[in-house]
């Protein structure tokens, strides 16, 4: 890979506690499908899981079997694919959930429980003592059944640290393989995430450790990177940042940040990242923002004179990640901010020559054509987008009441 990252990043970054290798844990097929309006059918899940396996994803969460019969059928198919990646399922800290996972043939389960007083009280009406009792009983049961189990501490960043540390020490003794810390509502900053994660790791002991972040403040990727710097080896991620609310850390962004900023291998064939992003976009129906890093339409398109001239002189001037590293192609486009450099560069690919005056005239004509009916086109697109979001990405409340009336009046057929 190219390396045009500032020397100051290497100078000021601390290697203390950082893992030698990062293993990518995918949550697209479970947490990602929780995005409002997203539905993956079995073939979608097979295609996405197979692609992720091919590029080197280490762990794939196949889903939450207690959700529905259809979910269990899809999980069974994924478990039977024989992928190189570890394919497991998410379960609550209960014997019923564990038994259901085992009946499907799961050899790896990701058992979770909230650990914050806030969640325990308002979601479950439980105390920390109740939580400890339930979690340890489930862990003992999983150990007795001989299944590999990890433990996910939901809402960890809002939990009492002493309670979390004591609980994790006990669950490690019962055989928990990996422990995943969660920033469930994006309630922590990157610096605090580093210190918080490092504190728990030092007090509980070496892992493997994982982290699961959310993006309510736009910090999911940054917090994940901070946790990796603190010693986490298994970041849990979703392609294109799918997930509840504002989503989870974007797999493609975390991979490239870990590889290029931290200089840690993820084992991922990054040249296929764009293909994965486009596959998930197509199957999820959640479109990628043009400005999205790595996979956005504009990520490798250059228009302004400053950027075009810089990239033509040396790609490292404005591209810390080369397009071919992630399966993209560079494109120079013409628009309001274009200058003579781009025009001359394009002319060099042909036998046509223009004077400086003619080049200026070309640029004036380009700006006129770009602005022609621009407001009308934008308005039409935004109207279509709003209609799509309202009717495809989860039905709005008013549609719910229409359906209720149809059912009540016998008109639903």
In total, the number of domains comes to 3
* Helix and strand element order: HEHEHEHEHHEHEHEHEHHEHEHHHH
Question: What is the CATH domain class of the largest domain?
Answer: Alpha Beta
Count, helices = 16
* End-to-end Cα distance: 58 Å
Shape: globular
Q: Mean pLDDT score, rounded?
A: 94
Major beta-sheet overview: 8 strands, parallel, barrel
| Helicity, as a percent range | 40-55%
Radius of gyration: 25 Å
Unreliable stretches covering 5 or more consecutive residues: none
Say which CATH homologous superfamily of the largest domain is assigned: Aldolase class I
Structural class: alpha/beta
Per CATH, which architecture of the largest domain?
Alpha-Beta Barrel
Strand content: 5-15%
Write the layout of secondary structure elements.
Layout: H1 7-12, E1 25-26, H2 42-55, E2 59-61, H3 69-79, E3 86-92, H4 95-103, E4 108-114, H5 117-124, H6 128-144, E5 148-154, H7 161-173, E6 179-183, H8 190-204, E7 209-213, H9 220-230, E8 234-237, H10 251-260, H11 273-284, E9 301-302, H12 305-313, E10 331-332, H13 340-347, H14 356-371, H15 374-392, H16 397-408
Parallel strand pairs: 1-2, 1-8, 2-3, 3-4, 4-5, 5-6, 6-7, 7-8, 9-10
In short:
The chain is 46% helix and 11% strand. It has 16 helices and ten strands. The protein has helices at residues 7-12, 42-55, 69-79, 95-103, 117-124, 128-144, 161-173, 190-204, 220-230, 251-260, 273-284, 305-313, 340-347, 356-371, 374-392, 397-408; strands spanning 25-26, 59-61, 86-92, 108-114, 148-154, 179-183, 209-213, 234-237, 301-302, 331-332.
């Amino acid at each position: 890979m190219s390396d045009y990252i500032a020397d100051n990043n290497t100078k000021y970054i601390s290697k203390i506690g950082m893992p030698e290798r990062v293993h990518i844990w995918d949550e697209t097929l479970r947490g990602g499908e929780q995005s409002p309006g997203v539905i993956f059918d079995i073939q979608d899940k097979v295609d996405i899981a197979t692609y992720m396996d091919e590029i080197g994803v280490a762990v794939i969460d196949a889903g939450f079997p207690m959700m529905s019969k259809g979910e269990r059928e899809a999980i069974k198919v994924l478990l039977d694919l024989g992928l190189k990646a570890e394919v497991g399922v998410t379960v609550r800290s209960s014997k019923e959930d564990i038994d259901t996972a085992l009946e499907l043939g799961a050899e790896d389960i990701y058992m979770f429980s909230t650990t914050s007083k806030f969640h325990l009280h308002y979601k479950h009406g439980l105390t920390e003592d109740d939580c400890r009792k339930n979690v340890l009983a489930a862990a003992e049961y999983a150990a007795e059944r001989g299944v590999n189990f990890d433990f996910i501490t939901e809402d960890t960043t809002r939990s009492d640290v002493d309670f979390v540390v004591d609980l994790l020490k006990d669950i490690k003794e019962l055989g928990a393989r990996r422990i995943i810390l969660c920033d469930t509502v994006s309630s922590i900053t990157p610096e605090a995430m580093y210190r918080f994660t490092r504190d728990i790791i030092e007090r509980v002991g070496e892992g493997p450790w994982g982290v699961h972040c959310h993006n309510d403040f736009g910090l999911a990727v940054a917090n994940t990177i901070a946790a990796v710097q603190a010693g986490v080896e298994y970041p849990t991620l979703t392609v294109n940042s799918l997930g509840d609310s504002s989503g989870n850390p974007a797999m493609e962004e975390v991979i490239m940040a870990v590889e290029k900023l931290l200089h840690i291998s993820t084992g991922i064939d990054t040249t296929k990242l764009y293909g994965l992003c486009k596959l998930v976009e197509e199957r999820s129906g959640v479109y990628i923002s043009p400005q999205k890093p790595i996979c956005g339409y504009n990520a490798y398109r250059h228009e302004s004179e400053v950027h075009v001239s810089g990239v033509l002189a040396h790609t490292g001037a404005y591209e810390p990640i080369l397009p071919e590293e992630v399966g993209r192609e560079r494109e120079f486009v013409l628009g309001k901010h274009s200058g003579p450099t781009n025009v001359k560069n394009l002319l060099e690919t042909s036998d046509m020559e223009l004077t400086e005056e003619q080049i200026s005239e070309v640029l004036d004509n380009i700006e006129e054509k770009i602005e022609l009916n621009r407001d009308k086109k934008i308005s039409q697109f935004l109207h279509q987008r709003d209609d799509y979001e309202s009717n495809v990405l989860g039905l709005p409340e008013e549609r719910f009441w229409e359906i209720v009336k149809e059912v009540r009046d016998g008109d639903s057929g």
